[in-house]
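User: I'll paste a sequence; please echo it back and then give the predicted structure.

Assistant: Echoing your sequence first, then the prediction.
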Amino acid sequence: MPWHARLELDYSLEEHRSVARFRHEGPLRILQSLYPEGGAVCHNVLVHPPGGLVGGDTLDIRVRASAGSHGLVTTPGASRFYRSEGELALQRTELLLEPGARLEWLPLEAICFSGCRAENRLVVRPAEGAELIGWDLAALGLPHAGKPFERGTLQQHIEMPGAWLERGRIDATDQRLLDGPLGLAGHRCLASIFFVAGSPIARARREAALERARSLIEAHPLRDSAGATSPTGEVIVLRVLAPVVEPAMQLLRQVWLAWRAELWQMQGAAPRIWAM
């Protein structure tokens, strides 16, 4: 039987403290709220007990950050799209930010096993004055474990309605895309980190964020397959290709820390779950 699960996570600012409340249907949970940075930022870990999705499974996730609140959401491990007998496995995530809210959406990677039919959809809706740092990582197969991505498809969708849309479909049989020099060039991990604002980002602030990202790219082993740009006045994005997840994740974490410091004047506080 397919799993159909839904989670609604709401952050609110109460007496200078960001507080999380959630409702769920099916196998999606939020672990207890943690405050490693003090009460202003609420850290939460999103848990999907089955550990992965097969054909017919659907996960619906909605996160709302109310005015002035600041939430950080991550996961304890990679999500997984397993082999399908024909049905689609779908994860839909909607992030809603009210004026002045901040949100950090930092799930670990999604692994697409050979034979999957997966769609991973993320929509960000920031109000004026709201800002988000988020990332997305996809790994195609497990090549170092002898499990290459030989069959199946992945549909990726990242959108800020009216301002920014990235949508692409990867088919395991499309060797020109997977291995060609104008495609993934043999890489099997594709990742991006993005800063999204509900109002146009001041030019000096945007240029400073791009400079911090580009300096980190230049010093990183993946510098030949990474780049940072600002496709619209409300979005800054860094994209990178890597043979496996670990070097791409390392670069994204470096940029996350740099953007936190540059754009929010905040020191990094890595979620404790990452050290486990």
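The CA atoms of residues 76 and 275 lie 10 Å apart. The mean pLDDT is 95.
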